[in-house]
Amino acid sequence: MVDRTARGDGPMTGAVVLGVGGSLPGRVVTNDDLATRLDTSDEWIRSRTGIGARRWVEPGTATSDLAVDAGARALRSAGVSTVDAVIVATTTPDRLCPAVAPEVAARLGLVGTPAHDVAAVCTGFLYGLANGVGLIASGAARTVLLIAAETFSTILDPQDRGTAVIFGDGAGAVVLGAAGPGAPGAVGPCVLGSDGIGADLIQIPAGGSRQRSSGLAAAPGEHYFKMRGKEVFRQAVERMAEVSLDALARAGLTVGDIDHLAPHQANMRICAAVAHRLGVPEDRVLANLDEVGNTAAASIPVLLAQAAADGRVKAGDQVLAVAFGGGLTWGAVTLAWPDAVASFGTFVPAGS
């Protein structure tokens, strides 16, 4: 096996991205497809969200399936076959218990490797990134496979126009390696935040201990994902702009140093508002929302894998990634893009 762990002149206290992978289901669901059963239209959806289509898994496909595909792609991109830890960020694990990460690790041939889940909804990838960087900085690992995977289509109320048109399925992954100071592909300081006072703005009301311990049956529809969109919009714009500036300051960078803003693909208006507040020109804002919708925790790594694969992001580019999600949670990080060939493609179910 080739040792792709980054090496610098100093101690291994930082992390770099060694490889990138992304995977989307093959099933394309257009706005017109949804308009046949919802009181909506392609024009209504596009004007409010910027979404034209999204990818949904076929029946029988689980989050672990997408995670394994994206993880395998990232490992190939990095040129490694083993890692010291596996992290999976997801809101839609295969089961409420156990975590999905150990199964994903086993299916990737990493039996015995420590593996755990991270649950921070749409900020999950950045929380997972901070976990991975922390493992490397502490010396507990030299390489970490971080996967963010979602099958949000499985938790959406098919009759809720406010959520059914927004979310899609997908998975993205990166391999992190230990690095010395100034190594190419470096991950900057991960800046995170939360505010549990807003926990009810983005939630699945039923299925957890609070509903189960009440002794009451869940009300109709409470097993589906719920979101109070107007309140979330305001919070998302404010928090994403603030945490972006914090991440830039901690990395010793300014907005002018950024080649690409990679915002969580929540909706077109949020992304545009954040870019405007930061003063980032439109041509520096990465987007794939029109084609894949909001893939929650997978949003940022899917966006970066796709942008790297099609040449929009190149080695040495400085990227600012920022997200906001349920919890409420938010985070931002700067990335010096690595010299790695991203692997991005369509998930093909076994037996197809």
TrEMBL record:
The keyword Lipid metabolism applies. GO terms for biological process: fatty acid biosynthetic process; secondary metabolite biosynthetic process. It comes from the Bacteria. It catalyses: malonyl-[ACP] + acetyl-CoA + H(+) = 3-oxobutanoyl-[ACP] + CO2 + CoA. It is found in: Cytoplasm. Pfam families: ACP_syn_III, ACP_syn_III_C. GO terms for molecular function: 3-oxoacyl-[acyl-carrier-protein] synthase activity; beta-ketoacyl-acyl-carrier-protein synthase III activity. Pathway: Lipid metabolism; fatty acid biosynthesis. Keywords: Acyltransferase, Cytoplasm, Fatty acid biosynthesis, Fatty acid metabolism, Lipid biosynthesis, Lipid metabolism, Multifunctional enzyme, Transferase. Coiled coil: none annotated. One of its GO terms (cellular component) is cytoplasm. Residues 248-337 form the Beta-ketoacyl-[acyl-carrier-protein] synthase III C-terminal domain. The keyword Acyltransferase applies. The active site is at C122, H264, N294. HAMAP family: FabH. Homodimer. Belongs to the thiolase-like superfamily. FabH family. This is Beta-ketoacyl-[acyl-carrier-protein] synthase III.
